[in-house]
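In keeping with the milestone schedule agreed at the kick-off meeting, the structural modelling team has produced records for the first pair of proteins. Each record is given below as a sequence line and a structure-token line. The laboratory manager (R.T.) confirmed that both were archived under the project's standard naming scheme.
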Amino acid sequence: MDKVIITAAITGSIHVPTMSPYLPITPKEIADEAVRAWEAGAAEAHIHVRDPETGKPSSSLELFEEIITEVKSRCDIILCLSTGGSQGMTVEERVAGVSSFKPELASFNFGSMNFAYFMTASRYKEFKFGWEAQHLADSEHYIFPNHFESLRKYCRIFMENETKAEFEIYDVGMINNLAFMIEQGQVQKPVYIQFVMGILGGIPATPENLVFLHRTAQMNIGDFVWSVCAAGRSQIRMCNMSLLMGGNVRVGLEDSLYAGKGLLAKSNADQVERIVKIAKELDLEPASPNEAREILQLKGIGKVNF
């Protein structure tokens, strides 16, 4: 493709406020960051929400609504609502945003896994908020639950609300899960896949592994639109690899807090601008939101419930 879809994952639920003063927390900060990412060239913003007082990950529909209505009033970026949530959230809490807001796009994590980031706690002697250290430590025994019963329920809810799934694939077995659900008629093609690399518990972020994931998906699923994101220092390297292979990319403070070696990103836009520059060096142009809607075959911003 000559056009590349750039996604900005605005805040996520892994990083804690102590790690960066630039991590957006309040609805206004998250909305402002989505708009800045759009101005920098992103066609899609991936949205999590946080308690505005403490920065703790939240599933509040009120916070989601405040953010997405504000963003929609200011720009036409595609809003991809997270259904991954955070530790302790029920399946119902995680998917409630799809039923309530009927977004064009939402994340859909396609398998259970160890999802660990406890090792980062030792880098900090003090924390800004009381919940942060425990949040990090608890991931040592956290299993991210996405079993087949919940996948089936998610499929029904996505279909009922005409919300396109962005299938989050953290390891090769999840491709097999997706192929099975397609065969069972629970998922309709064409599909949009996001290869998520570099999470402890998932597939390591290497060029060889990305080629393996892509090839396995081709053999088991056929044609699909795809993107890549990677944790930490692997972010830009693996996004660059995706561009070379004909894929799309995701950057943002959810995946990495840095804009370069040792340099904290002051905004999601810093990372978007960086990958836009790389794409243009490869003679690729960032897709506009409407071009991305056409590529992904979305229902359109006029059919959302916000």
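The second protein of the pair:
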Amino acid sequence: MSRLVINSVTKSYKNNPVLKDVRFQTEIGEILGIFGRNGSGKTTLLKILFGTLKAESIDISIDINKYNPQQNIFSKTIAYLPQDNFLPQDIKVRNVIPIYFQDGVSQDKIFYDPRIAKLENQRVGSLSHGERRYLEVLMISRLPQRFLLLDEPFSMIEPLYQDAIKDMLTTIKKDKGIILTDHYYFDVLQITDKNILIKDGKTIEVRDRKDLAENGYISQLKAS
């Protein structure tokens, strides 16, 4: 069972510490939720793990072996879903899939998904936010990478697609280790196996909404 262990991550912007001592671990078969207020460093952390942003210091291992995120593009170990849409907007759905998947089996698993098949002739830019996000998450989930980083997969999309994405992630986690962050904390807590909160640059273990409230992430009223 592959395990991703983050022993320490530190990152500053213009001498302003954002991540001071972030530590956690997850493995294939788990979904880990990461909470934190705007500016707490959630997206920064995901970009560091993916290898597109460099940390001041970092100590990561996968299956006991030291791991360098800067080499991720070659190792194909971690995939990343950014907050912003990454698919070309002017291309039809049926034509965008082969851009990222060359083999027919992988293409078919996406193309014949019941929610995607009916959208085949629509341009990506004409899809609703939920339709587009579902397509993006589905494509990321079909990549060979063992670990997936998902930045706000639920935010601002229709409830129908929030539920569809939750079902998808719950299904694929048997073969993937999933790390996700989203302000829609209720949706996150519904599917995660464990959670952490980034506060003052450090990680705090979170079990439920009560822990989120006690650490100031949500109000006590919302936690009740």
